[in-house]
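Re: the 135-residue chain
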Amino acid sequence: MNKLKKNITVGKINYLIVLIYLFFTAIISPVFALENDEGQFIEIKILDKISSKSELLKLKIGKEQKYKNLLIKSLKCKNSEFDDNPEITSYIQVKDLTNKTNDEVFIFNGWTFSSGPTINPFDHPVYNIWLIKCY
């Protein structure tokens, strides 16, 4: 019985190590791998879930742009070095102008990834945002 408890403990530790490894390889390493090609503009696609219409929006890095009830600002964008499957990332901040209380400054404040919008999803009841280009 004592050996069984020891094996279970070792299994839990190995599982935790694998989870930590996957976290760093899937989330952290793409951010550090983006060493070249910073852009001046990004293109994002915005889907209005109510009307089912999408629109392509071009944003200048560092400038705020209003889209309906959203105020969107991109602070940085980068293209990765990988030729076979390039990764495009951008750091964006989004404010909802309909929220008049100061409970929340940004409804989204973080990195977005073109290949995996679900890694750090933009969660809004009316709009979805996807990163398309950095140039």
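The chain has a mean pLDDT of 81.
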